[in-house]
Design a protein that fits this description.
With 616 residues, the chain is α/β, with parallel strands linked by helices. The protein contains 15 helices and 31 strands. The protein has three domains: 258 residues, Aldolase class I (TIM Barrel, Alpha-Beta Barrel), CATH 3.20.20; 90 residues, Thrombin, subunit H; 89 residues, no CATH class.
Length: 616
């Protein structure tokens, strides 16, 4: 893609949410099939995927299916068959993690390297490009400068996450869930232990921080960096959230649609259609744990979500007074200038860092009443100065349901009337052209405003098309009944539907035995792989992936963590550092541990790379 073809890539938990994302302006979607998705709870049938692909293609949008887990030998055949069925269902690309698939007979469909392939360096990017991938989904932790370095050494599409939940570990390199629960993040089963509470203790057992979600990060929001990302070489802006509900996807997709359009307008779109009407997006009003730009500037900031490991939502203000009403319900006043509605959900962060939630029963001015019964502890949790967040905005949720935008393709109509023939030509913005010829035996108009009436009747919408007059030529001004003009417009829409644009599919062949490596790329690969001992972090769970690494010059290849559980090893490596977050980088040289339910994890600190390591 060039700068003139930027893509907003939206998550689709299911077909309905995918359609909603397209209607809100998504240029493409990513979705899981019935198996091998990195979000186990977000599978879909091939029938639904085919229907969603057809809907997306109406607007020139694309659908990518994920097969982004590591695979065991016994699963390779099933995964390859699934890839073929995805291609036949109309998918435009596959997002994969397991490199063993490159040695199978895949259909001629573009392959994208999942962020789980751990793309953090130019060397890794060059390797994956040389293996036939047509897009690289970069690690979330990269700065703009690091992205530029990768762009300078590659030629294929680069994709970057711009919004949503952040894994504390480098993607594809977290084994904590596997160690503790047997549920592998690389197999779509992550137990999300990073959102749990931990004690931070030293070697003597002294508690430094007690019962806090120390590994939980804020959510990513790079909306303000879209221009810089595009100029650095990113062509696809990815929104995280294949487990998120429809309201989240609608709100965030439309938000980024407005951001990208304000940057370069319609020239940036890699799909067709414009949005008309509908809700105004409010990114603070759907699921979030607070927002961060993470490491995009190359500088560190406060990345921890604090006590808000689930979600905080929109910050409102602080509590001024708490009491109970005559029925014993909780009642408090607040200093927020934003109006609350009956049914809103609130998240309260107390002065001592405890989180509580409640539902607004009645809101009147700055007074809130909830039918949650008052207890002694509520006076502490909801004390004066406690922060109030709205994590469920009832009125906005309703707005998202009933006030959706319309996504319409513009159609230019040429209206030519000569003698007894009426010729209507329509050209849609995606290049389809249709012709409609009709008899022109209509009486001569007596009204001088007949032309304006004709144009007004044609310039309306039918189906997904918005018609507009490009050229109007008549030898004699005639009177055209509104019913006739409406019928003509509907017929033009029907003809356009029948002349559906055939999606141009890239033909790919990524069979490793046929790869022709450029001499420069071969040199870089030799430097990055040749003679290297690939350990469990290579995520090699099948014989085909092992063969591939050996063919590329690896000295040895160990089994994936999930295949042969190693003894104490690096369970997680993170750009986020607890010591930095607590401001104790320089002076605390003690051995530190995370403790949860009696289980301890040793922490390590690679200060040269400014990375934290969890061992276990």
């Amino acid at each position: 893609m060039q700068l003139s073809e930027l893509e907003i890539l939206a998550p689709a938990k299911n077909r309905e949410i995918g359609i909603a994302a397209i209607n809100c302006g998504a240029d493409s979607l990513y979705i899981a099939g019935p198996a091998f998705g990195a979000r186990e709870a977000a599978g879909n049938s091939l029938q639904d995927i085919e229907k969603l692909a057809k809907y997306a293609h109406k607007f020139g949008s694309k659908l990518y299916m994920v097969i982004n887990t590591i695979l065991y030998d016994k699963e390779i055949e099933q995964a390859t068959a699934l890839a073929k069925r995805a291609y036949e269902a109309g998918c435009d690309a596959l997002i994969i993690q397991d490199l063993g698939l490159l040695k199978t007979k895949l259909p001629p469909i573009p392959l994208f390297a999942s962020t789980q392939t751990n793309i953090r360096t130019p060397e890794q990017a060059v390797l994956l490009e040389s293996l036939g991938f047509e897009r690289l989904i970069l690690a979330r932790e990269l700065s703009l400068e690091q992205i530029r370095e990768i762009r300078a050494q590659t030629t294929i599409d680069l994709e970057s996450f711009v919004h949503g939940a952040l894994c504390v570990s480098y993607s594809g390199q977290c084994y904590m869930s596997s160690r503790v629960t047997g549920r592998s993040g690389n197999r779509g089963e992550c137990a999300q232990l990073c959102r749990n509470n931990y004690n931070l203790i030293d070697s003597s057992g002294k508690i430094i921080v007690k019962n806090s979600p120390l590994l939980s990060l804020k959510d990513l929001n790079l909306a303000h960096y879209i221009p810089q990302l595009a100029l650095a070489g990113i062509s696809s802006f990815k929104i995280e959230g294949r487990l998120k509900d429809a309201s989240y996807v609608k709100n965030i997709v439309r938000y980024y649609r407005s951001v990208v359009d304000s940057f370069v307008g319609s020239l940036a779109k890699s799909s067709y259609g414009s949005l008309y009407g509908g809700f105004v997006p409010k990114p603070q009003s759907t699921f979030n744990r607070g927002y961060t730009s993470f490491f995009i500037t190359g500088e560190r900031a406060s990345w921890s979500s604090g006590a808000m490991a689930k979600q905080s939502g929109e910050y409102l203000g602080k509590i001024e007074r708490i009491s109970k009403d005559k029925l014993g319900n909780i009642e408090f006043t607040h200093n927020s200038s934003l109006p609350l509605s009956n049914g809103d959900g609130l998240c309260i962060l107390s002065l001592n860092g405890e989180v509580s939630g409640l539902r607004v029963s009645v809101s009147s001015g700055n007074k809130v009443t909830t039918n949650q019964k008052f207890q002694i502890k509520d006076k502490t949790l909801l004390a004066r100065g406690s922060k109030i967040y709205r994590n469920y905005n009832k009125e906005f949720e309703r707005e998202l349901e009933v006030n959706m935008p319309e996504r319409l393709l513009s159609v230019a109509v040429t209206f030519i009337s000569t003698g007894d023939k009426l010729r209507l030509t329509a050209i849609s913005e995606d290049g389809r052209e249709v012709l409609l010829l009709r008899d022109n035996s209509f009486e001569v108009a007596r009204d001088s405003r007949a032309k304006e009436k004709t144009i007004a009747q044609i310039e309306k919408k039918s189906g997904i098309y918005k018609f507009g007059i490009k050229e109007y030529k008549v030898d004699i001004q005639r009177f055209y009944p509104a019913s006739f003009l409406n019928e003509c417009r509907r017929e033009l829409a029907s003809l356009l539907d029948q002349k559906r644009v055939i999606q141009k599919k890239k033909i790919s062949n990524v069979n490793v035995s046929e790869i022709k490596l450029a001499q420069t790329s071969q040199h870089k690969i030799n430097n990055s792989i040749r003679g290297v001992e690939i350990d469990y972090r290579g995520n090699v769970a099948n014989s085909l992936a092992r063969e591939l690494y050996l063919e590329l010059g690896a000295k040895s290849v160990d089994n994936a963590f999930e295949v042969s559980l190693p003894k104490e090893v690096e369970l997680m490596r993170s750009k986020y550092c607890i010591k930095h977050e607590l401001g104790i980088c320089s002076h605390n040289q003690e051995q530190l541990f995370l403790e949860n339910n009696g289980r301890k994890f040793k922490l390590g600190f690679d200060c040269k790379k400014c990375e934290m390591i969890i061992f276990g």
